[in-house]
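Student: I would love a firmer grasp of how sequence relates to backbone shape in proteins. I am handing you a single protein, as its sequence and its fold in token form. I am told such tokens are a discrete way to write the fold. I hope you can help me see how the letters and the tokens relate. Take your time, and here it is.
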Amino acid sequence: METLDKHAREAAVLSSLTEAQISRRNLMIGALASGALFTALGMRRLDALAQDTPAAGGDDWAPYDGPLAADQAITIPINPVKNFDPGVSYGEDELYVLFNLYDGLVRVDQRTGEVVPAVAESWEINEDASEYTFHLRKDVTWSDGTPIDAHDFVYSISRVLDPEVASQYTPAVTSYIKNGEAIENGEMDISELGVKATDDYTLVITLVGPTVFFPLVAATWTYFPVPKHVIDEKGVAWVEAGNIVTNGPYKLTAWDHDQQFVIERNESYYGEKPTITKATFRIYADAATQAYASYENNELDYAEPGGPDLERILADPTLSAELIKFAQSSCFFLVCDTTNTPTDSIPFRQALYKALDRDTLTADVFKAEYLPALTVLPPDIPGNNPDAAMSTGVDEAKALLADNGFDPGSIELELFFQNATPHNTVAQFAQSQWQDGLGIKVKLTPVEPDAYSDWRASRATAKFGAYTGSWGSDFADPSNWFNQNFTTAADHYQNHWSNAEFDRLVDTAIVNTNIEERNQQYSDAEVILVSEAPIIPYMRAQAFRAVKPWVKDIFFRPVLSVVHLRTIKIAEH
């Protein structure tokens, strides 16, 4: 049985290191912990942002040490979530919870952006960075007191490839770990996966090839441990409140699936205990447009406003003083079925690209809530190429259609969209632009958010015209975008695009240790992706986070910009 999203190997392999590089192996290992390696790779370490500390990522930052509220509780809005199983999730709103419930081998410090130890207190890298040996702490337990050891990680990582689990994010394993792809394809047994416990507290992960950025991958949610002893007893119900046990700073204590869920401090946590003792996540059908009223009524301590609320906030000096703004590592785009008429035609897709007025969409429709995008890779990702953008304009789009024999009046394009902000607004805008500008009839068909992942998976065999999609970085490397999503083998968005030169470039780039060459290869690949327009980029997200003045030491990063509770304090107010 196939997973919900069929991906092929992301080929996270780098070519053999030179003798000089090998001699600097220990320097590289130290650089991993300090963040210097990511700078060397062209991965910018962006300073974290905090409400009262604009230089929070700098050396002069100091934690809040003023008087604290007696009740260290916080209330946060969230969209509906399906479950709290990190081995299944492909990473949306549930990440707000997963990063607080679980600790993996390592984690990314939200203030500094550095990879730091978590369950693994240290790790070693072999000479070509194709094998990582993690040494686990001996004092880590589940929230029910059951000890955690290396065998838990073998079980948890292997479980991602179990067809019965139906993980939605198998590439996190198959792209990097030896034999992962063959196991997913049914060609090898799970026992052959390159994850081994050599003793109770030593975990050896063998990769498909040299992968110097693997700690960034290991910090993602798919590598979090899950409790075998509870899963064996409770089955899929193990994630319910009353059943679930976790190993992070918090544990789930209540879950009303339609209303809210509550997490409370895990007193069995091995690390420094967080100040926040309780977080209530209140569920909204669309938190961006519905939650801010509750924030204004002091029912919420935090919100992510959008739409009319954000426009009103930005125009109000008092309200905007509570707002944190930063760019996110993301792209929104329209996905075209490249095997179905008329979107199987490159000129037709180019015409759709050219006819979209992105400035009007982002500045006027969304009131600067988003930024226009003509290319796919965000500016914070190495290899991004702004020169890959095609020129735009309705006249150019009309000429393309005419030159290639299209009669716009005879064409009907069905545009599917996720029935939530911002996708519903974008769909209406694209319909207007293409109907009014090009004369193409556009039929809009909504897909409810909780059905989206299954609907997208069904596009493997079901034809479509176009649909609204998006991607946000899981870690700061172009392979997380191009190799994982857009190669012929990956086909993450099930639009069946295939370009041999694009595949060659990105497959070569990911095995290239020459950073300048590697970035250029990804840059060249972006030219192909944009010019053939299997996906049509149109905007990037900006984050606008409303935070009450009494919420201190809250940090965000452009990649996976969710709320991490472990540093937050509630000041006396």
Notes: Residues 1-57 have pLDDT under 50 and may be disordered.
